[in-house]
Design goal:
Elements: E1 5-7, H1 23-26, E2 33-39, E3 46-51, E4 56-59, H2 63-90, H3 94-97, H4 102-109, H5 117-124, H6 128-148, H7 155-160, H8 169-174, H9 184-196, H10 199-205, H11 230-236, H12 264-267, E5 272-277, E6 288-293, E7 295-296, E8 304-310, E9 313-319, E10 328-330, E11 334-340, E12 346-354, E13 357-363, E14 366-369, E15 371-377, E16 385-391, E17 397-401, E18 406-412, H13 425-428, H14 434-440, E19 449-455, E20 460-465, E21 468-469, E22 480-481, E23 491-492, E24 500-501, E25 507-510, H15 522-525, H16 535-546, H17 552-559, H18 565-574, H19 582-591, H20 603-624, H21 627-630, H22 638-646, H23 649-652, H24 656-679, H25 688-691, E26 693-696, H26 706-712, E27 714-718, E28 730-731, E29 737-741, E30 744-749, E31 757-760, H27 777-781, E32 786-787, H28 792-798, E33 799-807
Parallel strand pairs: 2-33, 4-8, 12-22, 26-29
Antiparallel strand pairs: 1-2, 3-4, 3-33, 5-6, 5-25, 6-30, 7-29, 8-9, 9-10, 10-11, 11-19, 12-13, 12-18, 13-14, 15-16, 17-18, 19-20, 20-24, 21-23, 26-27, 28-29, 30-31, 31-32
Helix pairs in contact: 2-6, 4-11, 9-10, 18-22, 19-24, 20-24
């Protein structure tokens, strides 16, 4: 195995013409650290050029080598992260972490794809399986390299004491539980509100869009078991590792990530913004594509920026590091970005069980046997655990109520062929025209997304995509009996979803809002009725509409915009009010005329968010619902609440305005009192960022000492914004710790590719000892971007280090 560190020289790479930078760049280029590695499985030499921001640019002689090197590099930079992703998805955590993870493994295995693999691969097209095989081989090649260089083993494996697992291509597509489908939790929450009150009361929990009245399915008892969703939550949550869980002794130490009542604000937290701007509205005269997906924060980041360049394919952008290709970025001809489009892809089925045989359920008048899959869960330092996974014709059983002879199973589009989340980007990342892009998305399964498009010919477009179940006789908003009366009748075609091409406005933007256009037959197709709060979209649209020309810098500022439309609406509601209570009066004075700018140093933002998240929602909910219903869920739907506060008659009844004003004033006074307890009696010292912080936590942070935890975690950072600002910041109400938001951002200058800007919090590397582990955190916080080079010339100029890979047989 060759291993050398030198400075780059033209002579050392004279045989590789593609690796030589232009002479014009040599004089100004800083010395480049170079490393050469022999790699089993590589067919021809390849380069990984790592730029000064830690972004790897892969240059390979063919596509197979390109995806192979992408897998090799993902393992080189993010091995613990992708190994944990694989183990979580396949249900193999107990094998390395011990008995505490048996329940989570059992749950995850219920949602692994178990269908025909030939059908699965066909769904993604002819290029997909070879790419996955090459990627997995690249991961394995790095694991083999580690076997010969064990001193290079990542810290996490040494700490826990286990060896990374080898991959197969099937692993990549069989894992489904990271797919962000919906709306199972909301179905259960709605049923619980109906059990305690009524369907009308559920409108406080979540408002349906477009306006819609659902009904309780015939034969459904809405009073569901309290812990019905425990298995589903375990199957879809992240991995929580603590000192206690690593003792391998007690299965009860692994707690659910979200263990409280269902909260619409947390369910809809996985959001995003994107927009495309036409040349006519762009300050550059070229299209602009901007995207900032909002996901959970962690160290390392969920997203990984990478370039994969071969003679037939030249991709750059971000994806999840365990998946080949990129999902957001460009290919030198088109740019593409995505946000969640809220198609309802889940249903909970309730079955009557045969009292004489609990493995049989009633279906169309007969007792039908469940399918049982027997599996063994290997357990570190313990005996293997045998588990029986039960499946109905609709999907995995997640709960059995033996006393009532009921079983509950999930039908989810996750488990259909071709539904591996984000993997079907393999199709559209090769498109060169809008027609090709649309065709490529015909098979897109999950997550359900607003795809936006821009190309070098000046075209822009919007293509919502995802498998949308056809429900002939119900709307998907509540659980249904599993007796055969409520069956999917296939899926709506992609061309039956809305779309747009070169809109007259000169731009198109999405932020997970209800964006089905006027006249769309939503009542027939029933794609979904639960959408993310429209405030981010409204603010973005407000800014874009007001500009004659939109620049790249405008897009950067807009991605970092922290103006809250809900806060603006609340300030307007307070404007005419007064109070004799000194605390309430002081609060009214502080908020009077405030511009709803949610700065980290803002006293008004601190007061408004403490009021909004801890006091106003609870007061409103208790004022308009019976206590039994109010206690079944957490925060009310913010949009529905604001609508009701502005037009109180529908919810507050007689003397509606007075009741509304009492809710506003009483809860505001309580919030002022809490702010005094939190930050003192002088509002001049209050700051939102003292409460609201961003922490990128490493999975092992709770399993190490304080010194190591400080090295693994990035933050906390004082943070502005709110869940409703374009710079989205969903937080835990318990401590205001930011949980979701835009860690990755990109603004693409379509056609002038080297002028694209990007950011990835906290850094590109997954190695805590790397300078690129946390180097982008402060820049991210300050709203800064870096140039993302694309041409070989620009990449060479930005290169900090070079990893030159050669086939192991080469001499």
């Amino acid at each position: 195995m060759a291993f050398a560190v030198t400075t780059w020289s033209a002579a050392s790479h004279a045989a590789d013409a593609t690796a030589t930078p232009p002479a014009s760049l040599l004089a100004s280029a800083a010395p480049v650290t170079s490393q050469t590695m022999q790699v089993e499985g590589l067919s021809q030499p390849a380069d990984i050029l790592i730029d000064r921001n830690g972004v790897p640019h892969i240059f390979a002689a063919n596509e197979r080598d390109g995806f192979f090197v992408q897998g090799f590099n993902a393992a080189r930079d993010r091995l613990f992260q992708i190994d944990l992703w694989r183990r979580r998805g396949l249900g193999q955590l107990s094998e390395v972490f011990g008995r505490a993870y048996v329940a989570q493994d059992d749950a995850a295995r219920r949602f692994v794809y178990r269908g025909d693999m030939a059908t699965e691969w066909r769904r993604y097209g002819p290029d997909a399986k070879p790419a996955a095989e090459a990627f997995a081989a690249g991961v394995n090649a790095y694991i083999d390299w580690l076997a010969r260089h064990p001193d290079q083993m990542p810290y996490e494996f040494k700490k826990v004491g286990y060896w990374p697992a080898k991959w197969s291509a099937e692993d990549i597509v069989r894992i489904r539980s990271h797919g962000l489908t919906r709306n199972l939790k909301s179905e259960v929450a709605r049923a619980k509100v109906v059990c305690k009150a009524s369907l009308d009361a559920d409108g406080v929990r979540v408002g349906l869009q477009p306006a819609w009245k659902t009904q309780v399915p015939d034969g459904l008892d809405p009073c569901l078991p309290d812990d019905l969703l425990k298995v589903f939550d375990l199957a879809t949550q992240g991995v929580k590792i603590t000192k206690e869980s690593l003792q391998h002794a007690n299965a009860d130490v692994v707690q659910l990530a979200e263990n409280g009542p269902y909260d619409v604000s947390t369910e809809s937290a996985e959001g995003s913004n994107n927009w495309v701007v036409s040349p006519q509205k762009s300050a550059t005269g070229r299209p602009i594509m901007a995207n900032d997906p909002h996901r959970a924060f962690a160290a390392p980041s969920l997203r990984y920026i990478v370039q994969v360049s071969t003679p037939t394919l030249n991709l750059i952008g971000a994806g999840e590091p365990a998946i080949p290709g990129v999902a957001i970025g460009h290919n030198g001809t088109i740019a593409f970005g995505l946000t969640i489009f809220n198609i309802d892809q889940e249903d909970l089925y309730v079955y009557d069980l045969n009292p004489a045989n609990p493995d049989q359920y009633r279906y169309r008048g007969k007792w039908v046997p469940m399918r049982t899959v027997h599996e063994t869960i290997d357990v570190r330092d313990g005996a293997p655990v045998q588990t029986d996974l039960k499946f109905t014709k609709h999907g995995p059983v997640i709960y059995v109520d033996a006393a009532r002879h009921h079983a509950y199973a999930v039908r989810t589009a996750w488990l259909e062929p071709g539904m591996s989340p984000y993997f079907d980007a393999m199709r559209y990342m090769r498109a060169k025209t809008f027609a090709q892009f649309q065709t490529a998305l015909d098979t897109w399964g999950a997550p359900t997304v607003n795809q936006v498009y821009a190309d070098t010919s000046g075209n822009i477009g919007w293509v919502p995509s995802g498998m949308a179940p056809i429900r002939p006789n119900w709307d998907g908003l509540m659980p249904v009996p599993g007796d055969g009366r409520y069956e999917w009748a296939g899926f709506w075609r992609r061309d039956q979803l809305p779309s747009a091409y070169n809109p007259a406005s000169g731009y198109f933007t999405t932020s997970n809002e209800m964006n089905m256009p006027a006249g769309y037959p939503y009542a027939q197709r029933k794609l979904g009725f639960e959408w993310t709060n429209g405030s981010r979209h409204a603010r973005i649209d407000e800014v874009l509409k007001a500009k004659d020309k939109v620049s790249l810098e405008d897009s950067e500022r807009l991605q970092n915009d922290i103006v809250s439309i809900p806060a603006r609406r609340l300030v307007a509601l307070l404007a005419p009010l007064s109070s004799d209570d000194p605390q309430t009066s002081a609060a009214l004075t502080l908020l009077k005329g405030w511009d709803a700018h949610m700065g980290a140093d803002s006293a008004q933002a601190a007061l408004e968010e403490v009021w909004f998240s801890r006091h106003l929602g609870r007061a409103y909910k208790n004022a308009v619902l019976p206590k039994s219903a109010a206690d079944t869920f957490g925060a009310p739907d913010p949009a529905a609440m604001l609508d009701a506060l502005e037009q109180p008659a529908a919810r507050f009844g007689a003397n509606a305005n007075a009741k509304r004003d009492a809710v506003l004033l009483t809860s505001l006074g309580e919030a002022w009192g809490e702010m005094m307890r939190l930050q003192g009696t002088d509002p001049g010292t209050w700051q939102w960022g003292k409460l609201h912080t961003n922490l990128n936590a490493h999975p092992l942070a709770d399993a190490v000492d304080a010194e190591m935890r400080a090295k693994l975690n990035v933050g906390p950072l004082a943070k502005g914004g709110s869940p409703f600002t374009p710079n989205q910041s969903t937080y835990r109400v318990s401590d205001f710790r930011q949980t979701n938001g835009p860690s990755f951002r990109i603004v693409v200058d379509v056609g002038n590719w080297d002028n694209t800007r990007a950011m990835n919090l906290p850094g590109e590397s997954g190695n805590p000892d790397s300078p690129h582990y946390r180097d982008l955190a402060q820049k991210w916080l300050d709203g800064e971007y870096f140039k993302l080079p694309y041409s070989r010339e620009a990449v060479e100029a930005a290169t900090e280090s070079r990893l030159h890979l050669v086939p192991a047989t080469a001499r």
